[in-house]
Amino acid sequence: MVTRVVILGVFVADTAYRAARAPQMGETIMGEGFALGPGGKGSNQAVASARAGVETHFITRLGRDTFAEMALKTWADAGVTPAITQHEDGYTGAAYIFVEAGTGNNAIIVCPGVAGSISPADVDARAELISNAAVFVTQLEQPMDAAMHALQIAREGGATTILNPAPAATLPDGMLALCDYVTPNETEAEALTGIAVTSLEDATRAAVELSRMGARAVVITLGEKGALYHAGGQSVHVAAFDTGPVVETAGAGDAFNGGFAAALATGLDPVTAVRFGCATASISVTRSGTAPSMPSLTEINALLQRQ
After folding, report:
1. Which of 87, 104, 151, 250 could form a disulfide with 178 if both were Cys (CB 3.0 to 4.6 A apart)?
2. CA 13, CA 37: separation in Å to the nearest integer?
3. Carbohydrate kinase PfkB domain: from which residue to which, for each copy (predicted)?
4. Known binder of ligand: residue 14?
5. What are the pLDDT digits (tens) for 105-144?
6. Under 8 Å CB-to-CB from 175, ≥6 apart: which residues?
7. At the fourth CATH level, which superfamily is domain 5-306?
């Protein structure tokens, strides 16, 4: 059985600033900490998938600079196989992350650099890899036409397709119909459906609407409340895991998506795969950083056995 996960997305270097609050325009405040590390939704998801024990390939563009070197080392350490091109005419992406010290909540600005020009032609160059995946994942940090084209190739090749619609954006007609799973968080679900998600009942209504819009199955991630799975007119709530104090929530959604994709690729049923993804995310929020916070398969399995 093919267990390969292939992910199209963006790598960025995360520059994370921790402070009691965000500054107002024109204001300077003193911070409590700074960290530089690897990030980007697609790259984080690839790291999470690989560390969860599954063969994982990541498709993107990099510059030729220090941040590109960081990306290549991150993937080598995690066991991700890069499927990349490198370009002299632009920079590798970077992100500003503000972390609220008291809660661990975050706000992020992403500049994708050369990955912002990923094109359908780049996707065509990796068509065989995408077609032969067990699970294909993409998000919306790279251009929409590239994501759409990749989903089409994955669907035609028989791969299970996952769209993580982040950051929130208006989707082109027919995109959700290419998705075996769509995995928004509460904010992204509201952006797609117009339904504010503040409760499980709201999440169910939003999931029903996303199904009506074309998605075969919907997983709405709910932060500390876990995730809601909806397919075939039935909804299942999967609770988050108690793993101790939250240090940082940045990257939790990526941890979930990477873990979920890895679990599906190994043949787990969807609800069990959602539980695996929730365990992956629950561990990640107890650590600083995004890619560095992704847990190993041993850690995930130990948590699943305890709870």
Report:
1. 151
2. 6
3. 7-296
4. yes
5. 888 888 999 999 999 999 999 999 999 999 999 999 999 9
6. 147, 148, 151, 163, 214
7. Ribokinase (3.40.1190.20)
Is residue 37 annotated as involved in ligand binding? no
Mind spelling out the 3-state secondary structure of the chain?
A: CCCCEEEECCCEEEEEEEECCCCCCCCCCCCCEEEEEEECHHHHHHHHHHHCCCCEEEEEEEECCHHHHHHHHHHHHHCEEEEEEEECCCCEEEEEEEEECCCCCEEEEEEEEHHHHCCHHHHHHCHHHHHCCCEEEECCCCCHHHHHHHHHHHHHHCCEEEECCCCCCCCCCCCHHHCCEECCEHHHHHHHHCCCCCCHHHHHHHHHHHHHCCCCEEEEECHHHCEEEEECCEEEEECCCCCCCCCCCCCHHHHHHHHHHHHHHCCCCHHHHHHHHHHHHHHHCCCCCCHHHCCCHHHHHHHHHHC
Answer whether residue 92 shows pLDDT above 70: yes
Mean pLDDT of the residues in the chain: 95
Backbone angles phi, psi at 20, to 5 degrees: -65, -30
pLDDT, tens digit, 9 for 90 and up, residues 253-268 = 999 999 999 999 999 9
Which residues have a catalytic role annotated? 254
For the stretch 173-217, pLDDT in tens is 999 999 999 999 999 999 999 999 999 999 999 999 999 999 999
